[in-house]
């Protein structure tokens, strides 16, 4: 009256089906014994091919039952003729099976070739992409070097054009300090100035900020208004009652004032 259900599927714990022992009565040939060569996993459970094989075996047994007896010469010739026809049919059937098997093998081979060709195409595309990336990187580096050399040559030409005659010019300090784009205010790194090397000069060094005693003295020097903030509650713009609610008349006056504005 009770049913149970395991945690696993039946197929995970199922073994090969049990085949019990059997006894064949004398004079009887059960048709089931013709399938004794089929075992579990090798023909069982029966598929379309096994069903066709069973049907052919039945047809062959029915054909064997129609063969004439060997008691007459004419029967022997007729029997030989029928056997020849059956043998031709069996050879034709076997040829069809071989052709089907060859077609299956050709289909598998075609799929394998197609897969190999796709893999090869993917590899070729990846190799071409890598080559294109390398050439692009080399091209960008070459363009960057050309631009750098061009800028260098332009600066040299501009500097040479300022002093075509090659005369020596004295330094004009007033002009340098009046021009905020000069090297006095914005020195160039290529001339040997590195602003990051002296960045510690801009750090504020004060005893009030670096020591605890200085912080306490700095806090004591501040007025009370800085450390102790006094906040006053804002006064309501409308007339309110003792409980803090706004009267209806005051609310109407406020709405009228807003509409008037």
TrEMBL record:
A Pfam family matched in the record: CFAP91
Protein family: Belongs to the CFAP91 family.
Protein name per the record: Cilia- and flagella-associated protein 91
> What gene, per UniProt, encodes this protein?
Maats1_1
Tell me where in or outside the cell this protein is found.
Cytoplasm, Cytoskeleton, Cilium axoneme
Keywords associated with the record: Cell projection, Cytoplasm, Cytoskeleton
The keyword Metal-binding appears for this protein? no
Q: Does the keyword Cytoplasm apply?
A: yes
Task: Record the organism.
Answer: Heliornis fulica (sungrebe)
Major location (coarse):
cytoplasm
- CFAP91 domain residues are 4-156
Q: Which domain of life is it from?
A: Eukaryota
List cellular component terms (GO): axoneme
